[in-house]
Amino acid sequence: MEIIEVATKQEGTDTEYYSKAADYWENVTPTINGMLGGFAKISHTDIDGSNKFLKVLLKVENGPGTVRALDCGAGIGRITKHLLTKHFDTVDLVEQDKHFLEKAKEYLTGNTKIGQLYCAGLQNF
Description:
- By secondary structure, this protein is of the alpha/beta class.
- It has helices at 16-26, 32-35, 43-59, 78-87, 98-107, and strands at 3-5, 68-72, 90-95, 114-119.
């Protein structure tokens, strides 16, 4: 898995709001506990609720397909690993912090459903 760095900054995205968010996440440990703000114990409940929602959504007439998904703000790939790859053929990840994507590469090793890893804030993707 290669990390693709998106260097282009969209006009109007270089604001204090995005800078403060980037500063916060830069100092978060790349673990499930870090991704959930110290609440790793809720990970299973979170995944279970999202799984139920996706099962219903994917059955809706003219609903979304299952060929490809994009995990936005992917962190270390927790949602990709435990949810999205169960429903989609390929999952791409977008995350602004490279250290999270480096951990995601390790965390998702061996998963053949992983597509591209993009290092970019969503405002610039």
